[in-house]
Amino acid sequence: VIPTGAPARLAAFAAALLLIGGAAALAGAATGGGGAPSAAPHEEGAMEMEQTTPAGLARANGLATEAAGYSLVPEQATLRPGRTQPFRFRILDARGRAAHDFDVDGGVRLHLIVVRRDFAGYQHLHPTLAADGSWSVPLRLEGAGVYRAFADFEVDGRKTVLGHDLFVPGAFTPQRLPQERAAASADGYSIALEHEPLHAGAEGELRFTVTRDGRPVSSFQPYVGHRGHLVALRDGDLAYMHVHPLAGGAAGEIVFHAELPTAGRYRVFLQFKRAGVVHTAPFTIEVER
Ligand SMILES: [Cu+2]
């Protein structure tokens, strides 16, 4: 039986939409190679727009070791537990050469986020780039298990996040993802999180208030160029969403606009800096359909 009428037209329309989406993804990949002679200025609004497109999301969600023409290649992916050791890796461009031409944002060329796959032991590191294109950073992974390393960088104002698994041998007992809670503490600070119900694919506001001894803290030191830093990782696959804070705000407040792509739970890691020390507070949030 050949379908006719409305269902067939709907099917054709859906197929056309898929084609458009595929073309957009290909266009994103084609323009993403290293060394493109683009002189486009760093433009915040345009970047945020790009994040919301399927192609922009795919190159910045850390689910792949290779995206947008770049690949993340660790020198070794198995590390010993409980000792500081050098972790080295390279970011290769589409021709297989070590990429060098990273943008500098907030004084940083590349952010390396490492977290165990059960969300334990979150670390945010800034490796150094050697002349031969290799990156290195001292890394200490406390417990056994499988970790995810994310390399988050921009070239010509376009963000790419690549991910790679790291292994630490030994007996591993996974932690449960904590329930959603509106409060957390870190190093003597109390952090409260307020937000309206969050919906998949819609922009929502995450408002954190940092207090000490019951009073909002008076100021924050800039941390990688901002009042705070937030990474959201999706429960189930650790899809990575980097969220930019809004400038300014009341005493003790750090506000982010987040657009989380799908319903479900996320573990979000807030970081802020005071008196030269970076503090990390994790929260679980739920996103509705
Ligand atoms: Cu960073």
Largest sheet: 5 strands, antiparallel
* Element string (H = helix, E = strand): HHHEEEEEEEEEEEEEEEEEEE
| SSE-based structural type | mainly beta
Based on DSSP secondary structure assignment, what is the total number of beta strands? 19
Share of helix, binned: 10-25%
Into which percentage range does the β-strand content fall? Answer: 35-45%
Give Rg in angstroms: 20 Å
Label the overall shape. globular
Average pLDDT value?
A: 86
Low-confidence stretches: 1-10, 12-50
Give the termini separation: 36 Å
Side-by-side strand order of the widest sheet: 1-2-3-7-6
Bound molecules: copper (II) ion
> What is the helix tally?
3
Describe this entry's structure for a reader.
This protein has 289 residues and is mostly beta strands. It is 14% helix and 42% strand. The chain is built from three helices and 19 strands. It has helices spanning 6-30, 44-52, 54-59, and strands spanning 66-67, 70-74, 84-92, 110-116, 123-125, 128-129, 134-140, 145-155, 158-168, 183-186, 189-194, 198-199, 203-212, 215-216, 229-234, 240-243, 253-259, 264-274, 277-288. It has a five-stranded antiparallel beta sheet, with no helix packed on it. Strands 10, 11, 13, 14 and 17 form a five-stranded antiparallel beta sheet that branches. A five-stranded mixed beta sheet has the order 12-19-18-15-16, with no helix packed on it. Strand 6 (128-129) and strand 7 (134-140) form a beta hairpin. The longest helix has 25 residues, at 6-30. The protein is globular and about 50 Å long. The two termini are 36 Å apart. The chain binds copper (II) ion. Copper (II) ion binds at residues 108, 111, 124, 126, 224.
